[in-house]
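Usage

Read records sequentially. Each one opens with the input sequence:
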Amino acid sequence: MADGYQTAQASLNVASVNAGKPALPAEEAREQTFLERLQSVASNFDLKARLADLQRAVDKATDHIIDLMVVFAMQTVVLPLILAWGLLKVAGGLFNSRPT
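and closes with the structure output:
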């Protein structure tokens, strides 16, 4: 369960970083004037490709969010209930046993 949680958490971090990445690398952006950068971004900007990348990132993020929800539910609800049920059965068995 811990491996799935860590994998999902890392994937969400990568998806959030990739969603906000600039169209130009930082090194190129520093060497150009504002107008040159604007023209470069406008000429290199492929809206369909960018939207497809964002769609894939959202799809992956959705899967990982669902994985995190399942892990959270298991850790906070299901496992404690199973443990409490088991302890009640053991305690009930100890107190209900009558020596003969």
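Summary fields computed downstream for this record:
- The chain has a mean pLDDT of 81.
- Residues 29 and 37 are 6 Å apart (CA to CA).
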